[in-house]
Structure prediction request, 306 residues.
Amino acid sequence: MSHSPDELTVARLVQQALPGSIVRRIWSLSGGISATMQAVEVGWADGRSQTVIVRTHGQTAVAEKEYHLLHMLHGQGVKTAAPYGLDRSAGAVVLDYLPGEMSFTPHDPSCHLQQMATQLARIHQLDVSQHDLSFLPQVGATCLELGRERPLPTPNFPQEQAIRQTLAASKLPPSTNKPALLHGDYWPGNCLWLDGELTAVIDWEDACLGDPLIDLAQSRSEIAWIFGPEAVEIFTSHYRQQQRLDEGQLAYRDLCAALRQIRLVGADLVGFVAYFEGYGRSDITPATIRQNLNTFIDRALAKLTR
Prediction:
């Protein structure tokens, strides 16, 4: 994670992005993993006030990617913040502030999952040929997780070796899906909510171009261990109602996503449990994570090997 810039730097960034604004207050925001975030209240000579966010990545390329992508996405039916300015030297982006916060305890889980599915479908339905997205990497057909340095095996997920062997032996069927814009990390923690409504999709630094099944599978794997197997089916059903895809590769993509989850979650179940306790999910335990993700893996293995 990059270091938060000092307040003088933040004020300079905001005033460059919003000429004529007067910085009134600056405060740090929690929750940023890939970038530090600071909120800034600004005023105008006519008495108006506004809150903006300064996201500092510390890397010029990452900040440029986020800025240009949000500039394209804003107004395209995807709920994203409007970008106001880019500072290459600081690797920072100035964005509009959208109200909302992460929610892992939705009052209406089905509606929650439906809104998540709707936003993912809208992202995938964008006509990428109408925009210059040459700055985004393209993801190929092979499973990227198979090419990563193999972490130490974890006893929490004994199927890891079976997943790797199955993926290596599988002949991936051709896909008729057109390449789409992929968020790259579309999970419940990258959606903001207010009064039960999804207000923003955030953290676009992993965005890329590729088969939409890659995004769908990654979302499914995240929803599996956070909300359970039934939630996966509800989310997928809502997505299918809006976006018809060739799903011949879905089980393969599910297993690739599961390998990613094992890499990220598998060795630190206690740490993830502690994180979710802060969001009112004391029901998430090492046992539920293992059970839910193993169920997701078993179902994908069964589909791919039958």
Summary: The beta strands are 22-29, 36-43, 49-56, 83-87, 92-96, 180-182, 191-194, 197-201, 208-210. The CA atoms of residues 21 and 306 lie 63 Å apart. The chain has a mean pLDDT of 92.
